[in-house]
Design goal:
This protein has about 290 residues and is α+β, with helices and mostly antiparallel strands. Helices cover about 60% and strands about 10% of the residues. It has a 4-stranded antiparallel beta sheet with strand order 2-3-1-4.
Length: about 290
């Protein structure tokens, strides 16, 4: 029967493809933009560049590989072997690419460089995180702390970056520090965008006196699932059925037309959802 599309994300070739493309993009942004302006991005690679700029003992690629050895051991113990094997692969790709990719996009303005470098690195990071592995570094620590102590992954990154930029602040000119903060912000924004690009869904709530007819139309003609939520009007005190359904941007306009063709007085409420997991949607990501 072949591999189902929704199970593709767990296949080895697909995950290796994501890790390879994401790692190459990540290093392209670093070597093509960031290192030419001596920026310090957040995360472990930011610490690697800070050490490299200060010592010049090893190259960033070697530093990144060395610092990830104890982290991968921790991941092997506390997360899973599959996760660590994928992570080792990504770290190897990044370390090798850091040595062999020599680029200079020749961007002179610091602000433009921070935006361009951040966009490339963020998209690369997002592609990596769509796999069931990681690029190593702070990802491993953040996942362990989240699993063992329920510490939010975002908090771990925030505290680490706060300490890192404290070091940068006493070692570099303020212009470089500000550009590095902008770079990190753009990386985070591009990462979130790349993660949401193919996962975003629309949660639609429909309040109508003709909920039965609308529900039938949604399920039979549009082939969407629907849930009926029991509600009550605050002013009228009348019982109401609220229809909840999940769709995407492509189907949203068709859904709107279907609802208002049945009841032009219906209330149609749309919310953005970053991701939907379970049921007929994608499976939960297991490391």
């Amino acid at each position: 029967m072949g591999l189902k599309f929704k199970d593709l994300r767990f296949s080895i070739p697909w995950n290796l493809f994501l890790l390879t493309v994401g790692s190459i993009l990540y290093i392209t942004g670093m070597n093509g933009v960031v290192v030419h302006h001596s920026f310090i991005p957040g995360g472990l690679y930011g610490l690697v560049l800070f050490i490299y700029y200060q010592t010049e003992i090893f190259s960033p690629g070697i530093w990144y590989a060395l610092l990830n050895i104890p982290l991968c051991i921790l991941g092997w113990i506390f997360i899973s072997r599959r996760f660590v094997l994928y992570t080792i692969y990504a770290v190897a790709i990044m370390s090798v690419c850091s040595e062999i990719i020599t680029l200079d996009f020749d961007i002179h303005e610091q602000l433009y460089a921070a935006i361009a470098g951040g966009a490339i690195i963020g998209i690369g990071s997002g592609i990596i995180l769509r796999s069931i592995g990681s690029a190593g570094g702070l990802d491993i620590i953040a996942i362990i702390l989240n699993k063992k102590f329920n510490i939010g992954i975002g908090k771990t990154f925030m505290l680490f970056n706060f300490a890192l930029f404290g070091l940068v602040l006493v070692s570099y000119e303020i212009d470089v520090v500000i550009a590095s903060v902008i770079l990190t912000f753009v990386i985070s924004s591009a990462l979130e965008y790349s993660l949401a690009m193919f996962n975003q869904r629309k949660i639609v709530y429909i309040i109508s006196e003709m909920s039965d007819a609308i529900t039938t139309d949604i399920m039979d003609k549009m082939k969407l699932g629907a849930t009926l939520i029991q509600g009550k009007g605050a002013y009228s005190g009348e019982d109401k059925e609220i229809i909840m359904t999940i769709t995407n941007n492509i189907m949203l306009k068709r859904l709107e037309e279907a609802v208002f063709s049945i009841d032009d007085k219906a209330l149609f409420i749309v919310e953005n959802s970053f991701d939907v997991i379970g049921s007929s949607f994608k499976k939960r990501k297991i490391y």
